[in-house]
Specification:
CATH architecture of the largest domain: 2-Layer Sandwich
Shape: elongated
Distance between the termini: 23 Å
CATH superfamily of the largest domain: GAF domain
Structural class: alpha+beta
CATH class of the largest domain: Alpha Beta
Helix content: 40-55%
Order of helices and strands: HHHEEHHEEEHEEEH
Number of strands: 8
Number of domains: 2
Radius of gyration: 20 Å
Strand content: 15-25%
């Protein structure tokens, strides 16, 4: 700890991170052991976080992340969109396809940023806020495939392609964001072509790398 930091705030943030990483939640005793502090300190931290809706405790006394965290998370989406837009615009213009940034939201894929190409006569309409199960599109499948690899690596080819399997009947390609802490997502394109041109996959990987760099 430095003179400029708050020990109490630091501990509170660490509590949230520990709870976010625990599916079953943690008891006061478990938190005290992991933070190397006494139980009284943990009780005070949890009481404060509960007041703000960031932590909840079940009947058994196990603490879990509260729904207040979701309200904070929704505020992050505009920042993510702003950081990703330059790479998405370049991708859409280069390929003449609709580009998107997709993030994991529970068991679903959520499109948080969409850019359509400016020069094509026709292109796929793909709206921000679109949700679908992770396994039902290139965007979600790229994320699922990347889960089996260390954070700094991609699957061998680095991208996923679907042909006429998107909800609109269009084809798609996507690459997962890698090397980011606390964010699961992908960058992809949807297009009208039945066959995805060979250069699309590597170009999507390049854009995903650009977006990941912008979000670091």
């Amino acid at each position: 700890m430095t003179a400029e930091t708050s020990q109490t705030l630091d501990r509170g943030v660490r509590v949230l991170k520990l709870l976010a990483d625990s599916e079953r939640g943690l008891t006061v005793t478990e938190l005290a052991a992991r933070l190397a502090v006494n139980r009284t300190v943990v009780y005070r931290l949890l009481a404060t976080l509960e007041q703000h809706g960031l932590v909840r405790r079940d009947i058994g006394g196990r603490a879990r992340v509260g729904l207040g965290v979701l309200r904070l998370a929704h505020r992050v989406h505009p920042l993510l969109r702003e950081a990703a837009l330059p790479a998405l615009r370049s991708l859409a213009e280069d390929l003449g396809a609709t580009a998107h940034l997709t993030l994991v939201d529970g068991n679903e894929a959520l499109a948080v940023a969409v850019v359509e190409p400016s020069w094509t006569d026709f292109h796929v309409a793909y709206r921000t806020g679109l949700r679908h199960p992770l396994a039902e599109s290139a965007a979600g499948r790229a994320i699922l495939e990347a889960r089996g690899f260390p954070s700094q690596r991609r699957p061998e080819q680095g991208f996923v392609i679907t042909r006429a399997e998107e909800q609109s009947g269009a084809s798609g390609a996507a690459a997962a964001l890698v090397g980011l802490s606390g964010i699961e997502g992908s960058v992809g394109v949807v297009m009208l072509n039945g066959m995805v041109p060979e250069r699309v996959g590597p170009r999507v990987v390049e854009a995903a790398t650009e977006v990941a760099d912008a979000l670091r």
